[in-house]
Amino acid sequence: xxxxxxxxxxxxxxxxxxxxxxxxxxxxxxxxxxxxxxxxxxxxxxxxxxxxxxxxxxxxxxxxxxxxxxxxxxxxxxxxxxxxxxxxxxxxxxxxxxxxxxxxxxxxxxxxxxxxxxxxxxxxxxxxxxxxxxxxxxxxxxxxxxxxxxxxxxxxxxxxxxxxxxxxxxxxxxxxxxxxxxxxxxxxxxxxxxxxxxxxxxxxxxxxxxxxxxxxxxxxxxxxxxxxxxxxxxxxxxxxxxxxxxxxxxxxxxxxxxxxxxxxxxxxxxxxxxxxxxxxxxxxxxxxxxx
Length: 291
Known about the structure:
Shape: globular
Order of helices and strands: EHEHEHEHHEHHEHEHEHEHE
CATH superfamily of the largest domain: HUPs
CATH class of the largest domain: Alpha Beta
Number of strands: 10
Largest sheet: 10 strands, mixed
Radius of gyration: 20 Å
Strand content: 15-25%
CATH topology of the largest domain: Rossmann fold
Number of domains: 2
């Protein structure tokens, strides 16, 4: 779905493993990939400075990436000093990246302040789509499994939909990138509308289901015009758990969401994007909506 990818890794997220499968990523349509690692400043002295020892270790650790570059693929490794967010934004701009990939670790609400700070802040500032890749998924896959996953990184994408203003914007952004996707990448998507049964006890359910089916049917026709296979799933239930279950049972590779950010880490009010981010065992594609 994307041609130019920036992968920001801190090593504990396992994203540097993707550097072992460049031919498979190329087969899936990736034309350029940049690996970024940020080394914290050495702060044991009175004045913070670059930690040259850790920079050298990072360079050595990522040196394997440029040893086997497929023909026609552009590959780069960037080691920077300091906090990640500013460097991610600058490197993405320098290489004109289509998407940024970062790792995530599912956490509970009580530990959100430790979990989402960098990703939430990044999502509020980034101008290109952001893919969050769960760390357990990366470490659970064998080399053979990850090789296959890289070939079909975003082959089948789930698109949650409802009656909010964000949903049409999500579809519009998805269509924009799908229309210019490389060959052998995105093939299929599923429009998912979960009508929250818990807040609609007094409302007739059949008419709501039929209305949702009709709206998604019109969108299906638009997306099918982009040479995509399009599925529809409409049901009563709880949005976040049901979307995650559908993704798991349907071989969906990633779930698409959109908004101004992925949800404040200190926001105790229910937040759909944040809850998906915390609970999903599949990557999320976040499309930033900027005025």
